Input
Amino acid sequence: MDSNDFWMWLAPVIMLPVFFAMGWFAARVDMRTVLKQAKTIPEGFYKSLDALVEHKSGVAVRELAEVVDQQSDASQSTYELHLTLGKLYRQRGENDKAITLHQRLLESPDTVEDRRDNVTFELGQDFQAAGLVDRAEQIFVGLQHGSKARAAREILLNIYQQDRDWQKAIKLAEELSSSEQSYQFEIAQFFCELAQLALYQSEYNKAREYVFKALTTNRKCCRANMILGDVELKQENYQAAIDAYSAIEKQNYEYLSLIADRLYDAYEGLNKAADGLAVLIGYAQTFPQLDLTSVIYEKSLPIYGETKATETAIDLVRRKPTLTGTYRLLAVLQNNIDAKWRVDVDMMRSVVGMQMQKSVMYRCRHCHFKSQVFFWHCPACNKWETFTPNRIDV
Output
């Protein structure tokens, strides 16, 4: 082995202690830095964090506010603390304190660029929480081209929905639509809101126009065909109304229970009441979960009389026993049993009725909000078309 090879093998052995010493020194330096930084964190910060863990938001706000007051500059650490404190204020409903804090932070010369957008965004949410929607809207409109542009537009979309400004909502939702998230479902509902308003104002052509735009946006929009059927029914275009209502079966049959009465009325307008009743009975037999027992019984009475109407109602309830069906069935039987049992049947019907009020409701599939009234737009989570179209046991 020549001398060059010897030194090539020996060099790593000689350098190993050097590398070890460098690693030990670097670790010591890093640890000292960490300990030094830990000592500079105010004790109140840890108290605030501990209070948050224990869900004591009042204590957390008080401790964090003291830390922020002690460090009045807008360095990176206090800037983040300001934002956190502002969110805590807003969460607790102390919107005036949140607004004051964020406005003061905006006046700092260190609050620039992305920081300024972040603080302004928080301020807009403060105004919205305080009910100052106009001022919040102005702020979010001003953030359209900054780092918080998309987040600001999403909140603006909620504001326009709350204000029922559907034209602005449509325009903004179209701008927000992307390959990752499409707003076609919501846009179709916005067009339906415009169509419903036009229908109330007897502007039938305008209502049709909005309905067709809704269906173009979302061809499975059941509500659009419901409104179209209502428009045609109002103008006594009965066959067109039947076609519109019947199209819902292919879109989502669960919504047929919402238009059962009107579908029958359209058939009756063509002097085909028996055909309309047959269609409803067919729906009930094919889709037992539909809440059609009451309407079928009521429509059967003038056509077939009480005996056959009762038999039909009993058959439907037996196919799919529910509290709603039982309640209706007890009412039917009450008139056809021995007088000595009527009081007991009435008592049973009252008990079932009370239970229905407690447990048979429409429910939002997204947030599980429950209501005796059907909503297209959930008042709790603001989602569209999430309510069960038939009341269910909850």
About this structure: The radius of gyration is 33 Å. Confidence is low (pLDDT under 50) at residues 33-40. The chain is about 70% helix and 0% strand.
